[in-house]
Amino acid sequence: MDNRGVTIVQPTLWGDLDDGWEAQPGSGTSAASGTSAASGTSSGPGTSTGGRSTGAVRAARAHDTFTALRGHTERIVAHSSDRVAWLRARAMGITATDVARLASLRAVDAVVADKRYGSRFAGNVYTEHGKEREPVIASWVAATHGIQPSAHLFHAATNRAHLATPDGVGLDRDGRLLLAEIKTTANGFTRVPRHYMRQVWWQQYVLGADRTLFVWEKHDDFVPVADEPECRWIDRDDDAIRGLIALADLVLDRLRDAR
User: Fold this and answer.
1) What is the pLDDT of residues 172-197, one digit of tens each?
2) Residue 154's closest CA among 95, 105, 197?
3) What does the alpha-carbon distance between residue 145 and residue 155 come to, in Å, rounded to a whole number?
4) Alpha-carbon distance 224 to 94, whole Å?
5) pTM of the predicted structure, to 2 decimals
């Protein structure tokens, strides 16, 4: 996708969301973690447990489990080829696209508003170019790094409302999970923009990956400027992920309160 501001148009289904849906762990939950189905359940915004807020409790629980999450193939929610099911599932949780916007507490309200009322953005020439080029770039990623294209929507093992659709999924020589994220850009990158870093870290958390190949193709008036895209590896940052989980759960709390 292009690096211009992109927000997926999503239906709003928060009035139909089952209260227990977020709390259901996936079958990939680590048995060693001791996480129960109640680990994602909120007792309401502002609720204090042992002197800590609900969000802090969730973050602490996630800290104990998310570093060992695997079994991502058992946590597939939808495939983008079934666009209705894919959009419906995305609307019922917090995606990497949503999390990319959560730079601070101030961003929470904007994400909540879009999740409740939908976004008016329906795409532009930059997003259309990104859609056209993504399969070509994904084929290059598969050929050069062995990370296969993916269009599945996954949920996290500890919270079914935490969602991500990475552009590529694969394994390294030691069997460890690798992801790929693909962008097209008119400007190029000297470093990966922070909002894309948040998107990548969230995907790593949801699937249980440690590294992501971030790939970008620069274009001039929608014509690629080089024979091959550029890329760099992004390592997992658990400290950043903990902060993103807290902000994402704050969004979910406010959406529940608004129903």
Assistant:
1) 999 999 999 999 999 989 999 999 99
2) 95
3) 25
4) 32
5) 0.74
DSSP 31-98: GGGT--GGGG----TT-EETTEEHHHHHHHHHHHHGGG---GGGGEEEETTSHHHHHHHHHTSB-HHH
Nearest to 142 by CA among 189, 174, 178: 178
Helix, strand, coil fractions of the chain, as percent rounded to 5: 40, 20, 40
| Distance between CA atoms of residues 170 and 189, nearest Å | 25
| CA dist., res. 181 & res. 13, Å (int) | 27
pLDDT tens readout for residues 29-41: 332 233 332 333 3
Can you tell me the distance from the alpha carbon of 34 to that of 65, in angstroms, rounded to the nearest whole number? 8
Q: Is residue 16 left, alpha or beta, with left meaning phi > 0 and alpha meaning psi from -120 to 50? A: alpha
> Quick one: pLDDT at residue 126?
78
Residues 72-87 have pLDDT tens digits of: 888 999 999 999 998 8
Among residues 19, 24, 20, the alpha carbon closest in space to that of 35 is found at 24
Q: How far apart are CA 229 and CA 140, in angstroms?
A: 8
Which of 41-45, 88-92, 247-251 has maximum average pLDDT?
A: 247-251
